Automatic annotation (TrEMBL):
Pfam families xrefs: Sulfotransfer_2 (PF03567)
Single GO biological process annotation from the record: heparan sulfate proteoglycan biosynthetic process
Quaternary state and interactors: Homotrimer.
Species in which this protein is naturally found: Culex quinquefasciatus
Gene: 6037989
Keywords: Disulfide bond, Glycoprotein, Golgi apparatus, Membrane, Signal-anchor, Transferase, Transmembrane, Transmembrane helix
Name of the featured protein: Heparin sulfate O-sulfotransferase
Amino acid sequence: MLTTKYFFLLILIAASLIFVVLFHWFSSNDPEDRILVRYDTVNNDRFQQVRHWQTMTNSEALQADFDERLVVIYNRVPKTGSTSFVNLTYDLCRKNAFHVLHINITANMHVFSLPNQIRFVRNVTAWEAMKPAFYHGHLAYLDFSKMGVPAAKPLYINLVRKPLDRLVSYYYFLRYGDDYRPHLVRHRAGDTMTFDECVAKQKQDCDPNNMWLQIPFFCGHAAECWKPGSAWALQEAKRNLVNEYFLVGVTEEMTEFVELLEMALPRLFRGASDHFAKSNKSHLRKTKSKVEPLPETVAKIQQSLVWQMENELYQYALEQFHFAQMKLHAPGKNALPQDFFYEKIKPNQNVPVRN
Ligand SMILES: *[C@@H]1O[C@H](CO)[C@@H](O)[C@H](O)[C@H]1NC(C)=O
Ligand SMILES: *[C@@H]1O[C@H](CO)[C@@H](O)[C@H](O)[C@H]1NC(C)=O
Ligand SMILES: *[C@@H]1O[C@H](CO)[C@@H](O)[C@H](O)[C@H]1NC(C)=O
Ligand SMILES: *[C@@H]1O[C@H](CO)[C@@H](O)[C@H](O)[C@H]1NC(C)=O
């Protein structure tokens, strides 16, 4: 008699124990809880935001999570007007609460060694405390999906510039510097030879092969990318431009580039257009003492295969960018808020499923 009583009591205690354990297990599997834990440990000043999230539904929290974990990589090509755009992101990062990081690459290399490729990819992906983040640096396109990192890939953006303009700008920049860091003595300071004279004398500094830079930056880390005149590299650059880049603008239309970014990624770029228009950043970092090349110099450069291929990539990027711009507007209308909606959703959400 007494033993049966104890037996039932034991069963009761065991059952309640199981119930408590199960309850904890299920509640800690709630996605909102997981988010709360992550942000608590990672960043205390996100606490306010997290409190707000608790009132959201799971799918709303997931949407917000996309923004909070956003990583944008701007693998800028030297002398494409990138400084003014990067300056803009530094101005915005405090107000919009994201991090900007410069990738300083040893010895100005554009290609990482294999151990560094995987180290970089893992570091960027795992570094939660920096997210949302904007990374910028003179790095050739690097494919994250090759590195076995299952997490979301970053969004690549870039700007391209007319190849001859870029070369001429770089040529004078090496000799006279710019108004951004006016006192820095550049490699070729003191050399007063003009670009025209250089081309006429067929010197190294104005060799059209020096224009082979935008193609390899878009092409990436393959050996073939860095062979001036490679048709494969041009094709690969084009493929990456449309398949792997979120947005590629042109230096000549930077205002439109900033506007489109603000519309597409407001989490980072909210207020960017206004700020860009107000500040005189678009005129920032003008190369000093730049002389426009003579028509015969231009004609000579345009005969080179490298110019023709670089120009093809530029025109390709321009067409793509204009297409993206055009799609912002419905025919005869102003900007569209959202140009899709869902309909014919079956089975009906409000009718409970009957067995
Ligand atoms: C942006 O450019 C302005 C000069 O126009 C400079 O005063 C400011 O320090 C720059 N900001 C950063 C973060 O480099
Ligand atoms: C990168 O780091 C080196 C070494 O600290 C420094 O000398 C160089 O100025 C940095 N590069 C840039 C672009 O800031
Ligand atoms: C990423 O690299 C930086 C600098 O080397 C380091 O401080 C940081 O802890 C790394 N982040 C992760 C998540 O490994
Ligand atoms: C911007 O440029 C205009 C002329 O181009 C000048 O009048 C104005 O003072 C500049 N503003 C700032 C904030 O530098």
